[in-house]
Amino acid sequence: MIYMVEINFTDPETMPEWNAWYRAHLHTLLSVPGIETAQRFDAEGDMGRRFLAIYTITSPDVFTSEAYRNIGGGGVASAKWKAHIRRRRSLFSGIDIVPEITPDSRFLLSDLAVNTLDAPDLAMTALCAEALDKDPPRRHIGIVPVGKVSGQILKSVAVYRPTTERLVSPRYPVAN
Known about the structure:
By secondary structure, this protein is of the alpha+beta class. The chain contains three helices and nine strands. Strand 6 and strand 7 form a beta hairpin.
């Protein structure tokens, strides 16, 4: 399952501190059993929210676990910046493992199915919201090389560049 957190952060003065905290928090989240991978992104262009984090998780039970609560999961750990955060977070089915998005690739995110006739090389995967905000109820994701991000794609989807490598839990059974 994919856990997706989309964020706008409204305070430019504290944004560097918040970004540093979030980068470290990804490692903390990976200490929770059931959170297997984590990666963070910045938006390119005007579509979508400014920041995106995506995680591979094993089940919705992660969010009610003692381990998750103990690290401040669900927004407690980020309370210092709460006034500056506008977020939505949802858990999606449709793919089991979030692939790594490398620096020479972009992560695409759309609320609507993308007309592949306009971009015949673009393969998008449909996701269905299963838990948390469930907003929107369906998403479509894809990964493309940087050179394939065209003006047509930018008009219909949010494009995100990775700001971290994909981090992997030491408990994760699949090799990096």
